[in-house]
Structure formats: C-alpha cells, structure tokens
Amino acid sequence: MSLQERIFDTPSLYRMKIVLLSRVGKYAKRYFKKTWDVQDIVLRFNVRSIVDLGCGRGDLQTNLGLDVEKFYGIDPSFEMVKHASNLTKSFVVGRAENAPFRDNSFDLSVLSSVVHHIPIGKVVYAIEESLRVSSYTLILDNINSNKGFVRLIKNIWWKCLDGGTKYRTLTEWHELYEQSGAKVLYENYSKPFRHFYIAVIKNGNR
Ligand SMILES: C[S@@+](CC[C@H](N)C(=O)[O-])C[C@H]1O[C@@H](n2cnc3c(N)ncnc32)[C@H](O)[C@@H]1O
After folding, report:
1. Which residue ranges form the domains of the chain, and what is each CATH number?
2. N or C: where does the chain have the smaller number of CB atoms within 10 Å of the terminal CB?
3. Which atom of ligand 1 is nearest to the CA of 110?
C-alpha cells in the first residue's frame, strides 16, 4: 500500500479528501454528476441488488440513496468496513479479487474508484470475480488521456495525490476487459478532458 493509500484506514481523513476534491471546481462537480449517473444505470439495467466491491466508507449507499432491495459491500480496510457497518450490517472485510459471495448473488457489482488501486497482477481476477458474483459490473474510475504530455502530467498528479497502481487509457481499459473475458454494454467518459470514466460490462461468455 502506498503512503497516499494509508488514508483508506482512516475514514474521517478519506472523507476530508473527498470533500476537498469535490470543491476543487464546478467543472469536477458538473462532470461527476453528468458522467457518473449511477441511478440511471440502476434503472436502465433493472438492478434490484448491488455489491459494492471496495466500498470504503459506504458512501455509494449513503450518498446516492439507491432504491434497491439488497446492498452489500466489501473492503480490505477494517476501519472503513467498521465505519460502513454502522449504516447496515451488510459490509464485510474482503478483496474484490476474492469476493466472498456465491455465483450470481447480485444484479450489479460496483467498482467505484477501486480498479486503479488494485495491484496490476490481480486486477484481471478482480474483474472476473465481479462478473462471477453478479450479472453486470459497473466501473466508475479515472480515465487517462491518449496524448503523451497530458498523460504524463495526469499520471504525476494522480500518483502524488492518490498513489494508485495504474491510471488506464481507454485502450488499456479495453485490454483489461478482453483479458477478463468481459463485454462492454455501456461506456462513457467526461469531455473535453478525459477524466471520469463509467462502463457497464458483463461476462462475454454468458
Ligand atoms: C478511492 S477509495 C473508493 C471508496 C468507494 N468505492 C467510494 O467510491 O467512495 C478506494 C477503496 O478501494 C479499496 N481497495 C483497495 N484495494 C482493494 C481490493 N483489492 N479490493 C477491494 N477494495 C480495495 C480501498 O480500501 C478503498 O476503500
């Protein structure tokens, strides 16, 4: 775990980071809402049950007030899970690459700002696991630019602030899906500057 990722063991500090980031500018807020419309995905794919893989503080459930029948969450950080389980008891310690659920237990797995923190050697397993436990997987993450200079600057910015393992371009996201046997059903990213990325994928063999 990088120095910057230690914040994941301190829910209150992580909350401060998110609040600070969301105040950075109207641009971020506007595109966050426009690009990451989770409620729209829930309706569009008729989702009644969700597992939030890498749930952190459980903010997805609290902030979005999603109208679903079953909502579970897992996170490797005990402190984050302790915080989230004050909301409901359906949050447990675990990792996306080894999800403690039976096949097809949920309609939707969510990986929200998680994939870029998973060690590179394990990320294919994490996507495969998400597709094993649910019908669809929703990915909300960063997307990197194709242009060399912009990509370099973004990588430096993210590495310093966030400490993740890899910030993928669209091509790299597609390579990851291909390695995991996933098929893309829906995809979008913020424009004009690529920053926020959303995708819904499913198991390509089902
Ligand atoms: C940037 S936070 C996002 C938290 C939450 N998903 C959200 O959107 O608010 C990244 C989270 O991923 C978790 N994480 C890191 N590696 C993970 C893994 N291998 N499997 C599942 N979660 C992981 C961290 O503990 C942290 O809570």
Report:
1. 3-203 (3.40.50.150)
2. C
3. 6
CA of 144 to the centre of ligand 1 (A): 19
* The pairing of beta strand 182-189 with beta strand 196-203: antiparallel
Task: Copy the structure tokens of residue 164.
Answer: 């993740």
Comparing 91-95, 132-136, 152-156, the range with the smallest average pLDDT is 152-156
Report if pTM > 0.85: yes
Residue where the block lists tokens 């994490």: 126
> Which structure tokens are listed for 99?
């999800």
Residue that has been written with the tokens 């426009």 in this structure: 34
Question: Cβ neighbours of residue 159 under 8 Å, at least 6 residues apart?
Answer: none
Query: Mind listing the pLDDT tens digit for each residue in 73-120?
Result: 999 999 999 998 887 789 999 999 999 999 999 999 999 999 999 999
